[in-house]
Amino acid sequence: MSFMKLKVISTLLTVINFINNNNKSGQWWQTLHRTMLRGVLGKTFRLVGYTIQYGCIAHCAFEYIGGVVMCSGPSMEPTIQNSDIVFAENLSRHFYGIQRGDIVIAKSPSDPKSNICKRVIGLEGDKILTNSSSDFFKSHSYVPMGHVWLEGDNLQNSTDSRYYGPIPYGLIRGRIFFKIWPLSDFGFLRGSPNGHRFSDD
Amino acid sequence: MALSQGWVRRYFKAFCKGFFVAVPVAVTFLDRVACVARVEGASMQPSLNPGGSQSSDVVLLNHWKVRNFEVQRGDIVSLVSPKNPEQKIIKRVIALEGDIVKTMGHKNRYVKVPRGHIWVEGDHHGHSFDSNTFGPVSLGLLHAHATHILWPPARWQKLESVLPPERLPVQSEEE
């Protein structure tokens, strides 16, 4: 599942600030007449300064606190439908508070530029049933140290740890906990429909 | 009294303003452009920490260079350890995706590095916790590219991107 961060916000804020400042310092033609070159230069520097400042604030917010993301793809149905908008928080990743059953955003292990959105089925040391398709060949595997086991809620249509194995904890970007769009589904996310996939111990 | 209160208030205000500019800018700079880190352990001898335990080098980590996850064979990079997410490790890139490497002590004699992964090894074979133990690592764990040694001053130098000839990939992607 891929998603987009709304980094446009920082640019917008900068523009608003710029307009406000413009109004405060008198009529625009007066400003222009007074010190044309200095004014323009000052404005440019101020604009660059505000851009850097808000850009940095946006980076810190998206990196350490969380943000709004748009999910796409069918692998998390029915919990998250295609093109739903959700809140993600990054604090639990920094404090190592990811638990079984949490829905997380992680970097794809085969392509670091794209992101995936899956549910954590097992933490390190858990015993995982790797193929549930038949009762005859039940094979278990243990999640190694520092890794997590991720699976989509839509088991039939999801490329997840059953395909590429456990992924390192360091790839996790954030935890999704709140859905804001569509409005009919507004609220905290539901539990996993595949409860039997969780390990017993 | 009123004057001094006003002064305190103004000072506090200016401090807050500066604080809210400086902290995000500094954090972003350290996250996105470059930072420095102390290297611990003997796994990269003789390139780093040649003196053993009594000296530890401080290296410059360039984040900007790896923003698109582009690394070359021979680069010294820092990664989030796949076994322990709280730890960063510093290793040399031996092979990129698609290469076939001859391993040293891994369970398979030859390994093809999968898509989006790299093979990393310490220069000090046998004393390094690297891909020979945990296999190829995902590029998403890449943290930074170590470009210079900054401390101690006598060892100030650029870290060259050299691949030991005996560690060349058996078969590389381009061929």
List the helices and strands and how they pair.
The complex is a heterodimer of chains A (201) and B (175).
Chain A: H1 8-24, H2 28-34, H3 36-65, E1 66-71, E2 84-89, H4 91-94, E3 103-107, E4 115-122, E5 127-129, E6 140-142, E7 147-151, H5 161-164, E8 167-168, E9 172-181, E10 187-188
Antiparallel strand pairs in A: 1-2, 2-9, 3-4, 3-9, 4-7, 5-6, 7-8, 9-10
Helix pairs in contact in A: 1-3, 2-3
Chain B: H1 2-32, E1 34-38, E2 58-62, E3 76-80, E4 88-95, E5 100-102, E6 110-112, E7 117-121, H2 131-134, E8 137-138, E9 142-151, E10 157-158
Antiparallel strand pairs in B: 1-2, 2-9, 3-4, 3-9, 4-7, 5-6, 7-8, 9-10
Active site (chain B): 43, 91
Domain Peptidase S26 (chain B): 15-104
Keywords (chain B): Hydrolase, Membrane, Mitochondrion, Mitochondrion inner membrane, Protease, Transmembrane, Transmembrane helix
Helical run tally of chain A = 5
How many beta-strand segments of chain B? 10
What's the N-to-C terminus distance of chain B?
A: 80 Å
End-to-end gap of chain A: 30 Å
Shape of chain A: elongated
Largest sheet of chain A: 8 strands, antiparallel
The largest interface is: A-B, 26 and 29 residues
Biggest sheet layout of chain B = 8 strands, antiparallel
- Oligomeric state of the chains in view: heterodimer
Percent of residues in β-strands of chain A? 15-25%
- The geometry of chain B reads as elongated
List segments of chain A where confidence is low: pLDDT < 50 over at least 5 consecutive residues. Answer: 1-6
Q: How many strand segments of chain A?
A: 10
Order of helices and strands of chain B: HEEEEEEEHEEE
